[in-house]
């Protein structure tokens, strides 16, 4: 086997195939610089933001704003944020939207994917076309706004939860996986008298854990990141999700407001609070993502191939 | 798995029937089973599909039909709810479109959108291919895995977060300006400069999605027959010739597919990205079609006008994707649907 990369079992020392010319130092150098800069462009801002959020007033004043080299850890910015106020509330709203939304979207998607996985079922072709067409035509902004407000969803979390509750792409991924399950397995369940619901919960779902984890991550990220829908549908600022609050602090230049308890000289520096809000917005994504990342290339591609 | 099959996004359209089967000629085996029997057999499947059916109906299909308000002088105050207002509003035919086509602000947004798409097609589109080839050539799978983990990450950040990162690094009070000020230089603020805005948004888009874009190319690369490389090397083909004659042709179907999808989306450039930065750099540089629709409808209450602009954009988009697909077929590529 002459595969250059990737095919080697982990641990085995990868080797360059004999026919390939040795790499030129220039090429290797260019490659290292390119990849190094790319990785650094992601990690460096994360580092600076984290360090600044944990810096004391003196450190920030000495650095003149953002801090690259940490000098001690000061968690007062986080204490201030969690003492109550807009950020705490927004984090709570976002968590609620993400948890309810992901649970709902996964349920809807898995059910629809299974319902659409049997080519000979009643209405199959029509239903499939119905579910896939929105992939080509996006719901237009103005009528969608009128529908959501017309249903009275404005200023409720349902305006954020319901519209994205089924994504055609995710549906195709899950359905593709379901169609890859050996037919004999499903047939034997049916012969044993299992209904479709039972087959789905007892046989199909336990096999589909990886793909459900991936699609669940996609949905969770969509809900956690919701910003524009909140701009459209949420006018009350005590209902803002975290992205709206982040925008108002970092991009619209609004000063972070905190509960009255901490004020004046005891308030941690604005810069630290701002960066702490960024950290709290990034943290859930960075925390969950590495566990699911190893699945998703496979998950996404399975869906695409079988779909 | 062949290279063609590995293309993400190819799935939905391929299985989608070009036109759903006419009721007059159902497959032979269906006719014999009476509807009631099939209902009894499949009712659970239908029940499973129902929640998704309703959500799509309410939040996709009704809005798509709702596009008809583009032909109305829609007045939200005519009824207690949008439906009543819709029924009461006056039909004015193509009046909104006439206004739209005479509106210089609309054509300005249109030109901006096309310019940004063209710019990104040249400076962004090839980068994931390049990065995928470089990543694929790394021998250490551990190093490769680490780099992939890091560069995929920004794809999951919201645009608010991405723009916040850029403001923190490159903005007027950001790290770069801070460093330049310390060094006694006049800091420049790229975040509010309309002249370089097109470069800024492209860099932001690259930062967010260049890593994610490699996934589909990496999958295609791993399906190229390695013996081709060995045979070519034995025949004296150097590194660059192998890249040109084996790697790139191997990637061609995927490249064409993604190009079609991008062209079909030519009138959409990261909506949230532009809306977020529109105030900082001004409308002249940052107004694109999507932000135009938003600002001239919901933000100002002129719903019919915004709907007309949205409908125009959707129609052009559909024509573009069908045309790009046709061209791909003429060139002997598979395109996004094999049946049309």
TrEMBL record, chain A:
Protein topology in the membrane: Multi-pass membrane protein
GO biological process, one term: transmembrane transport
ABC transmembrane type-1 domain segment(s): 91-288
Gene Ontology cellular component annotations, sorted alphabetically: plasma membrane
Places the protein is found: Cell membrane
PANTHER family hit by this protein: ABC TRANSPORTER PERMEASE PROTEIN MG189-RELATED-RELATED, POLYGALACTURONAN_RHAMNOGALACTURONAN TRANSPORT SYSTEM PERMEASE PROTEIN YTCP
Protein known as: Carbohydrate ABC transporter permease
Organism: Micromonospora radicis
TrEMBL record, chain B:
Superkingdom field: Bacteria
Keyword Cell inner membrane: no
Transmembrane feature ranges: 45-71, 114-135, 156-177, 197-222, 303-324
Domain ABC transmembrane type-1 as annotated: residue spans: 110-324
Gene Ontology process terms (BP): transmembrane transport
GO cellular component: a single term: plasma membrane
Transcription regulation in keyword set: no
Membrane topology: Multi-pass membrane protein
Major subcellular location class: membrane
Region of interest (Disordered), ranges: 1-31
Name listed for the protein in its UniProt record: Sugar ABC transporter permease
Organism: Micromonospora radicis
């Amino acid at each position: 086997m002459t595969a250059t990369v990737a095919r080697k079992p982990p641990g085995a020392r990868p080797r360059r195939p004999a026919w390939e010319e040795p790499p030129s130092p220039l090429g290797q150098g260019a490659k290292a610089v390119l990849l190094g800069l790319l990785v650094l462009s992601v990690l460096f801002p994360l580092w600076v933001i984290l360090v600044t959020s944990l810096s004391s007033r003196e450190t920030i004043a000495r650095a003149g704003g953002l801090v690259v080299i940490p000098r001690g850890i000061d968690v007062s910015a986080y204490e201030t944020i969690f003492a109550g106020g807009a950020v705490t509330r927004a984090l709570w709203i976002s968590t609620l939207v993400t948890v309810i939304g992901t649970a709902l979207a996964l349920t809807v998607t898995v059910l629809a994917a299974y319902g659409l996985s049997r080519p000979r079922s009643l209405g199959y072709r029509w239903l499939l076309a119905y579910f896939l067409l929105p992939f080509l035509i996006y719901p237009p902004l103005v009528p969608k706004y009128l529908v959501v407000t017309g249903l009275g969803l404005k200023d409720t979390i349902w305006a954020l939860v319901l519209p994205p509750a089924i994504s055609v792409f995710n549906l195709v991924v899950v359905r593709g996986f379901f169609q890859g399950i050996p037919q004999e397995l499903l047939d034997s369940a049916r012969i044993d008298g299992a209904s479709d619901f039972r087959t789905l919960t007892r046989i199909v779902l336990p096999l589909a854990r990886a793909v459900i984890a991936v699609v669940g991550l996609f949905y969770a990220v969509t809900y956690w990141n919701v910003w524009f829908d909140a701009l459209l549908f949420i006018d009350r600022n005590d209902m803002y999700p975290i992205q709206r609050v982040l925008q108002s602090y970092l991009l619209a230049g609004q000063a972070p407001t905190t509960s009255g308890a901490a004020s004046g000289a005891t308030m941690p520096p604005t810069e630290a609070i701002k960066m702490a809000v960024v950290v709290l917005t990034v943290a859930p994504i960075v925390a969950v993502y590495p566990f699911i990342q190893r699945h998703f290339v496979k998950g996404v591609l399975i869906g695409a191939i079988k779909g | 798995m062949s290279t063609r099959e590995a293309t993400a996004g190819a799935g939905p359209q391929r299985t989608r029937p070009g036109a759903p089967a006419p009721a007059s000629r159902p497959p032979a085996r269906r006719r014999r089973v009476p509807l009631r029997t099939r209902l009894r057999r499949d009712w659970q499947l239908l029940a499973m599909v129902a929640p998704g059916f309703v959500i799509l109906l309410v939040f996709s299909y009704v809005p798509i039909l709702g596009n008809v308000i583009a032909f109305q002088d829609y007045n939200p105050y005519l009824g207690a709810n949008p439906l009543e207002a819709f029924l009461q509003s006056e039909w004015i035919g193509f009046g909104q479109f006439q206004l739209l086509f005479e509106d210089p602000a609309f054509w300005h947004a249109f030109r901006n959108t096309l310019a940004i798409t063209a710019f990104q097609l040249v400076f962004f589109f090839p980068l994931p291919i390049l990065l995928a080839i470089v990543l694929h050539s790394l021998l250490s799978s551990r190093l490769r895995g680490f780099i992939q983990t890091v560069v995929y990450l920004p794809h999951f950040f919201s645009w608010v977060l991405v723009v916040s990162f850029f403001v923190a690094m490159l903005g007027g009070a950001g790290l770069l300006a801070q460093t330049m000020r310390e060094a006694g230089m006049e800091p420049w603020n790229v975040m509010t400069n309309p002249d370089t805005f097109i470069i800024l948004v492209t860099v932001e888009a690259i930062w967010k999605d260049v890593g994610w874009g490699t996934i589909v190319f990496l999958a295609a690369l791993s399906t190229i027959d390695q013996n081709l490389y060995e045979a070519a090397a034995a025949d004296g083909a150097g590194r660059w010739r192998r890249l040109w004659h084996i790697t790139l042709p191997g990637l061609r179907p995927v490249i064409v597919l993604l190009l079609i999808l991008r062209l079909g989306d030519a009138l959409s450039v990261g909506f949230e990205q532009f809306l977020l930065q529109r105030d900082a750099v001004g409308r002249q540089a940052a107004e694109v079609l999507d932000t135009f629709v938003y600002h001239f409808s919901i933000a100002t209450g002129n719903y019919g006008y915004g709907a007309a602009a949205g409908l125009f954009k959707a129609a052009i988009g559909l024509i573009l994707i069908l045309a790009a697909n046709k061209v791909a077929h003429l060139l002997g590529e598979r395109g996004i649907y094999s049946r049309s």
